[in-house]
Amino acid sequence: MSENKQDTEEQIFEAASRVFQRKGYAGARMQEIADEADINKSMLHYYYRSKDKLFQKVYQREVSRFFPVIFKVLGSERPLDEKLEHLIDTYYAFLDENPRIAQFIIHEMSQHPERFRKFIREKGIQPPERFSRQISEEIDRGRMKKVDPRQLLISIVGLILFPFVARTMVELLFDLDEEQFLDFLNERKAFLVDFILNGINYKGHE
Amino acid sequence: MSENKQDTEEQIFEAASRVFQRKGYAGARMQEIADEADINKSMLHYYYRSKDKLFQKVYQREVSRFFPVIFKVLGSERPLDEKLEHLIDTYYAFLDENPRIAQFIIHEMSQHPERFRKFIREKGIQPPERFSRQISEEIDRGRMKKVDPRQLLISIVGLILFPFVARTMVELLFDLDEEQFLDFLNERKAFLVDFILNGINYKGHE
DNA sequence: ATAAAATTCAACTGTTTGGTTGAAACAAAA
DNA sequence: TTTTGTTTCAACCAAACAGTTGAATTTTAT
């Protein structure tokens, strides 16, 4: 009962998380998860009753990890340029550790929009109002162009996520090996801060 | 033999294309394809010998449609601002007709990178050199900021594709129905031209 | 008219896969 | 010690699924 139980249960969960993120729900096999966890397949059903239940727990956890990372930073009190830099650093660090999470969520989200809707409602996940307010303020004070905060939010998130989501495409089109791809990502951080702040004509607050 | 043959074969192909794009390879069912094509399942194997062969033909066609749309425009002779506007118009029109193609390609590409590599080599698909040259020229003439053309290319493509790839996310986070989402996309066209040209500090050529 | 190809359909096969079972070994708590 | 929970394993079952077959019907070419 004691520690072995938690260990095994967690071991299964983490293995399932990796396999589901690699293959998606339809492509994942219970046997592959068992192999990845280095346990017998019976244990999967012993702890989680079905593939679907196991998947939902994994999915729910990943969704709850994915969005707060963005929204917490965007909802903070910092000035826009600092906030952007902080977001890019934080999100890149997170995505380096979880390189498949974005693609996983995007794919499963579009397979089962109702489930996604349910989860974000339950968890109360939503873009921070403070971000929109901040954008409006900056516009009013003449510190940046007039833009729709939603367009800006989607652009920022898209610019950050896209290389992770379309990694294979980037690697093959530019003929990059893994190391060169990581260099590309690192260079991208500075590029993005500059590109986005210029894009909205941000003037800071001297 | 004549026209019925081609009709049915094409009917199967188009149905398969839709189902594979909706569900992905692993999630697609041969029966669902047959139903969608409104023919008997036997016909699938009569024309295409296996699920895998049918999929590969669909995949190959979609890949050959997807990339040239971007690369042809980017490789044209126009000035940068016109080119960008033209790209956004062209690509949005294409994506309106094929709303799932980006996600489909991205997902299957990362499931089988070798296959993707093989296809783009055979088809000779690669980002147009003329685009890189043009960027270098514009930088040399002081018409824009110094940027890595690759970073710019990925940014442009990412900004365009992301709302399609993550459509469910956009709709649910901003609470948009289908019509409102289409409005969002339409507003995005003007936003993007402006955002990108500002992002690289483009000064035109008066 | 005749032959050849296209199409339909139901029924079938073989494989993959999710899920179950039961017995045996082990560990830990009571 | 007794009891309860954990773990392993091989074998198994039932459902889903890809793929096949063969006979009957229709369409098209010659």
TrEMBL record, chains A, B:
DNA-binding region(s) in UniProt:
29-48
Q: Where is the HTH tetR-type domain?
A: 6-66
Q: Which UniProt keywords apply?
A: DNA-binding, Membrane, Transmembrane, Transmembrane helix
Source organism of this protein record: Fodinibius sediminis
Q: What is this protein called?
A: Transcriptional regulator, TetR family
InterPro entries found in the cross-reference section:
Homeodomain-like_sf, HTH-type_TetR-like_transc_reg, HTH_TetR, NicS_C, Tet_transcr_reg_TetR-rel_C_sf
Molecular function in Gene Ontology:
DNA binding
TM regions (residue ranges) = 152-174
Top-rank taxon, per record: Bacteria
